[in-house]
Amino acid sequence: MKLSADYYLNEDAVGVAQDLLGKVLFTNIDGQVSAGVIVETEAYLGIHDKASHAYGGRRTNRTETMYQSGGIAYVYLCYGMHHLFNVITSIEGDPHAVLIRAIEPLIGKEFMEERRNMPATKAAISSGPGSAAKALGINSTFNKKDLSGAEVWIEDHQIEYGKEDIAATPRVGIAYAKEHALLPWRFFVKGNKFVSKPNKV
Fold first, then answer.
1. Is-contact 184 169, C-beta < 8 A?
2. pTM for this entry
3. Residue 16 falls in which region: left (phi positive, over 0), alpha (psi -120 to 50) or beta
4. Domain 5-189 has what CATH class?
5. Distance between CA atoms of 200 and 186, rounded to whole angstroms?
6. Which of 74, 171, 187, 83 is nearest to 132 (CA)?
7. E strands of 66-127, at which residues?
8. Residue among 165, 176, 107 nearest 136 (CA)
């Protein structure tokens, strides 16, 4: 079942980042449907989070997407080569986002294998945010797409993880955020091979 539009209006991005673990992210590209179980996320808390693109109320052409009402995709290019897929949460004007860092291939594995040129059994196919997006065929055209639409959406398949199954650690690659780099706002499913490194608790 598709997550409701209201789901994304939650103002607690940290809570949403944890809750998205076990949810299933789908794409439909020209009739090719592929999907993966979300196994790793990171929360970014808008204007007060030094790691967020919107820190300090920064508004640019790129970050404007973040200020929209929750329930749309925020896709940006990292290092000029990797597209990173984020879920915008909270209410309009409150630029919270959850980065999807890794998925476990579930549906349309043959499409993922073609896009990544490797077997779906290999962890690298969708481990890390750039790989996860590429496996699902996500590129810059997905930016601002509605998550209740027909091209990209998230479903609840009743895959539940207990608190003991989820690790909470500092986010990856944000040393510039100083003390905020230490906040435990990265969440992953312990022992899942598709989680990006570092994946030890």
1. yes
2. 0.97
3. alpha
4. alpha beta
5. 13
6. 83
7. 73-78, 82-89, 96-107
8. 107
Residue 50: both structure tokens together: 């030094």
What are the average pLDDT values for consecutive 10-residue runs of the chain, which has 201 residues? Answer: 96 97 98 98 96 94 95 91 96 97 98 98 97 98 97 97 96 93 97 93 74
Q: Where do we find the tokens 């590129």?
A: 139
Distance CA 170, CA 182 (A): 5
Q: What is the structure's pLDDT at 81?
A: 83
Q: What would the DSSP string read from start to end of 17-64?
A: HHHTTT-EEEEEETTEEEEEEEEEEEEEEGGG-TTSTTGGG---TTGG
68-102 burial, b for 16+ CB within 10 Å, e for fewer?
Answer: eebbbbbbbeeeeeebbbbbbbbeeebbbbbbbbb
